[in-house]
């Protein structure tokens, strides 16, 4: 599965799920938004197994992205969940900081993960390079490519003009040609190593429609709570507004979670108008002028009139239709257009670098 396939599916409602296997990580990246450490908690393996067991041939996400913290601290669990997902028809991707890359060869448990998943992605940025040298990451990529594994890099920089991005992406092109597509994002998208899924923060401006494509895939957090997006505050539990809660992996299965994701009128409005567009349209005071994008969403609970308006106007077939149109409009624009909006625009085309290659699997 190519990186571009995963990114292209991101706006499609219920097409994928993000699963945090752990908050733990052996690296010490200075920019880690989650401040992951080796004493941070793992997600409950039994709860994750139970949730994956609810995937069926008739009802399953097309893609499950396995993240952390560092998911490869639990290679056996990643392998097991990937196998369970595949038996239902779900393809999996894993995103790692490659803490194991300084070994002479990829350790056997990680090789088993590579054989089990459909995509293997590694983080690369100036902070990671202080922990894991670029040459070691490149050696792992070469080994994975030889094994026939679809790979990619998530490259993070301070912004479009960051010389690190120019240097790193040119180096990857020089060493790998078009074999290693890259998702290049700004610094905000780091942290939980889920950068292909991090919410965008559109520039402040008129509160026209600014659809939130990030409210399309449920996220299973490390405590089992299932949220509607991967906003760091929401995942961490700093802000878990009721309108973004989809359930809990101890009791809810995929069919119910997907249905809630699809049918929630508030989520439909977030996916079509975006939080600022919704707030500005309904709030008597014209909306929070200075509020940021996700901050507006997190505070919508204080706007009962806004939530009521969303429920009154998006619960029916018209809301469903608009939601579908917004999702397909963004998906049809393609992965490069999506990264132009959510990632680092000048490097957006690198997401589809391997478009002429046959997927290895
Ligand atoms: S940014 Fe990712 S790899 Fe780095 S410490 Fe945090 S979780 Fe680990
Ligand atoms: S706007 Fe809301 S749903 Fe979208 S990413 Fe931000 S917090 Fe999540």
Automatic annotation (TrEMBL):
Keywords: Iron, Iron-sulfur, Metal-binding, S-adenosyl-L-methionine. InterPro entries: Aldolase_TIM (IPR013785), Radical_SAM_PqqE_MftC-like (IPR050377), rSAM (IPR007197), rSAM_sf (IPR058240). Coiled coil: none annotated. The lineage of its organism: Bacteria, Bacillati, Actinomycetota, Actinomycetes, Micromonosporales. It comes from Phytohabitans maris. It comes from the Bacteria. Residues 21-161 form the Radical SAM core domain. This is Radical SAM protein. SUPFAM superfamilies: Radical SAM enzymes.
């Amino acid at each position: 599965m190519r990186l571009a396939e995963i990114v292209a599916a991101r706006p499609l409602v219920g097409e994928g799920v993000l699963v945090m296997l752990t908050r733990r990580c052996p690296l010490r990246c200075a920019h880690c938004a989650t401040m992951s450490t080796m004493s941070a908690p793992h997600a409950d393996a039994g709860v994750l197994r139970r949730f994956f067991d609810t995937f069926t041939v008739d009802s399953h996400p097309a893609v499950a992205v396995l993240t952390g913290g560092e998911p490869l601290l639990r290679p056996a669990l990643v392998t097991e969940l990937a196998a369970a997902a595949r038996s239902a028809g779900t393809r999996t991707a894993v995103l790692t900081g490659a803490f194991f890359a300084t070994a002479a060869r990829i350790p056997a448990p990680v090789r088993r993960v590579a054989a089990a998943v459909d995509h293997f992605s590694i983080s690369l940025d100036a902070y990671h390079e202080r922990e894991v040298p670029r040459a070691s990451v490149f050696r792992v990529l070469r080994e994975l490519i030889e094994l026939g594994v679809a790979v990619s890099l998530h490259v993070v920089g301070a912004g479009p003009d960051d010389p690190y991005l120019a240097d790193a992406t040119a180096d990857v092109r020089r060493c790998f040609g078009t074999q290693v597509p890259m998702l290049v994002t700004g610094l905000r998208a780091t942290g939980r190593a889920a950068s292909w899924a991090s919410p965008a923060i559109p520039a402040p401006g008129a509160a026209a429609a600014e659809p939130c494509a990030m409210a399309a895939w449920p996220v299973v957090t490390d405590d089992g709570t299932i949220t509607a997006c991967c906003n760091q505050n929401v995942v961490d539990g700093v802000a878990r507004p009721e309108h973004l809660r989809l359930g809990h992996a101890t009791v809810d299965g995929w069919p119910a979670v997907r249905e809630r994701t699809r049918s929630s009128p508030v989520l439909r409005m977030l996916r079509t108008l975006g939080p600022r567009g919704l707030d500005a349209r309904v709030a008597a005071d014209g909306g929070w002028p200075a509020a940021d994008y996700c901050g507006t969403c997190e505070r919508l609970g204080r706007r009962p009139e806004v939530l009521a308006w969303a429920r009154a106007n998006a619960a029916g077939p018209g809301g469903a239709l608009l939601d579908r149109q917004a999702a397909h409009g963004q998906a049809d624009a393609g992965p490069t257009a999506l990264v132009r909006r959510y990632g680092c625009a000048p490097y957006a085309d690198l997401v589809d670098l391997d478009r002429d290659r046959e997927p290895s699997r």
